Amino acid sequence: MYRYVIRLTPKDQTTFGDDAKKTIFHFLFVLHCSGQILKNYHVIENEGYHLHVTTPKQDSLSEAYDSIYVKRDRTRIDELFTVSLDHCGIDLESQEYCTCQSRNAMELETFRFDVDSVFTCCDCFKPIALYELPYLEDKEDHNSILLWQDNYAAMDMLWMNCLCDRYTGNQRVNPDSALNKQGRAIAGQMSLQVGYPVYYHLACDYGKRVKAVKVNDLQIHICPECQTVMKRRVFTEEHTVDLCEACMLSYDAH
Ligand SMILES: [Zn+2]
Ligand SMILES: [Zn+2]
Hints:
Blueprint: E1 2-10, H1 18-34, E2 42-45, E3 49-55, H2 68-80, E4 81-90, E5 106-108, E6 119-121, H3 143-160, H4 166-173, H5 178-194, E7 198-201, E8 212-215, E9 218-221, E10 231-234, E11 240-244, E12 249-252
Parallel strand pairs: 5-7, 7-12
Antiparallel strand pairs: 1-3, 1-4, 2-3, 5-6, 8-9, 10-11, 11-12
Helix pairs in contact: 1-2, 3-4, 3-5
The protein binds zinc ion (2 copies).
Residues 98, 100, 103, 121, 123-124, 126 line the site of one zinc ion.
């Protein structure tokens, strides 16, 4: 949502070089893994280093949200550089983020060009900053969730770039594909952590696997897992979904 430049001015000339660059790229990587910046970051060298980053919210770079890895890298960055921050404006590649005080449910969903968080609030339909959510069990940041996002984007790209083969189609649609199993495990673990449902959003092709029935003139999905008729939830005109609360799966309603 918000584009910033983090300006790093070397404290002495020895700070230019491969080690400094490695430190900078690692710092950006761990900031991304903690959810404080999105993946569309760039480093420009010009009388120091300018780190162009997009953050979910205005205060996302606050130390309060640092993972243990960010804390460690921040110390090293502060030793090497004088740090200043400039706000550039709104990054139109990214959406506005959820500010709800409490939530009833989330959906886990992404697509090829999505740079934002994979969790969408079911109350306001905005993405949720990852650092506001607990880490999955035994993790110290959100890297495993971002790896799933990368996997989904790669599969979606192959599908959209007309490699419409059985493999990529199956990975997106079949609730038990390796890709969807990985995503459903994340949704299930996160649901346990936050204490409310996290629905895993499935792609729909109305092929052999995806079925629907007519209920009061509406075409409603049948849950591919338990085979019961799903529940239609009209959140807004643009956001209407079919849900199975037992299996924590959702489809776009159409
Ligand atoms: Zn919200
Ligand atoms: Zn079900």
